[in-house]
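Good morning N.,

You mentioned wanting to compare the apo and holo forms, so I went ahead and generated the holo version with pyridoxal-5'-phosphate. This is what I fed in:
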Amino acid sequence: MIRLARPSIDEEDVQAVREVLLSGFLVQAGRVRAFEQAVAGIVGCKYAVAVSSGTAALHVALLALDLRPGDFIVTSAYAWPSAANVAHLCGAEPVFVDVLPDTFNIDPSALEETVKRLMASAETAKRVRAIVPIHAFGQLADMPAIIAVAEHYGLPIIEDAACALGATLDGRQAGTWGVMGCFSFHPRKTITTGEGGLVTTDDPDLAKRLRVLRNHGLDPDASKPDFIDAGYNYRLTEFQGALGLIQLGKLERLIQQRRQIARQYNALLSSTRISAPAVPPHHNPVYQSYVVLLPHILTERRSELVDALKAESVETTIGTWHVPLTRYFRTRRGYKPGDYPVTDSVFARSMSLPMYEQLTPDVQRHIVERLETLTNQAT
Ligand SMILES: *Cc1c(COP(=O)(O)O)cnc(C)c1O
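and this is what came out, ligand included:
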């Protein structure tokens, strides 16, 4: 089977984890701290707070802004549902915004319209608490345009940068554009700690609040332990921290390899009816996933194609989710097709192709050849 994704784990990673396991100190002994400092150095932010997953990162980030029942966050309709879920679990409501058809990122003019509408009534205006753009598949959202909207209405931005460690726009790193940036180290991201996540920020008060929330509400600065809030246990283990440090050492190489694989796919797809992902000027994505769009005529037949490829030992999947049309949000809120037309279309036509370090040009040629042949047979 040609796998969709594989983590890049070698002997060095195993050795680092093994050392921690044999040391007898599995939590809170310095590796996580070192990992945080290393990420802060790479991203270029003052503080980095490691947590147990990307979803935990989003959860503590929203709580650090004091998100309350009845509040709104404004986020992308085409996304992994973490941001919407954690907002909902805070008692708040995600307000979804459609995406752009070429980059899959939140549409700044639709965002502007949505925020404007919410701000037009005093009753809803006071409930809008944050904009949470998602850097789709490791390519930054249009942050200058999003910041313009956020500043106009005085709203903070939390970046869902789960897929985007190392991605830049105008040379500026993901995770440095909002008041907080949330990363994931799930095995499908460029580097992994198994499960794991992290929040970046330049604000010392937010950093402290994040540290309190991830560790039972304990005051991280007090000389005598005391609980100053109701917190979670969202800590990363030491062996994950050690793994993360080794993984970070390979980040630049892994990103360059992904970009090379993407260039090769782009070239192979250029003569087909399948659209390669768009990269607007000044963007430097990391290709957490390489997501193509099938021709419109195949809108109803993507899953057939995924199955046919699987039967030929090529693993592919959808791009990501149409969050308003997942059963939970659809049944609670009555969303229907047509509410987010671009998300409707890209959700139906997107396909994620294999992307991992060991993927060779020959295998890529084979994947695209089979994809093209099966696409042509289906139409
Ligand atoms: C992976 C991902 C998450 C969730 O991260 P976990 O570490 O799996 O909790 C959230 N948002 C986006 C956009 C993601 O891709």
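DSSP finds 14 helices and 14 strands in the chain.

Happy to go through it together on a call whenever suits you.

Best,
F.
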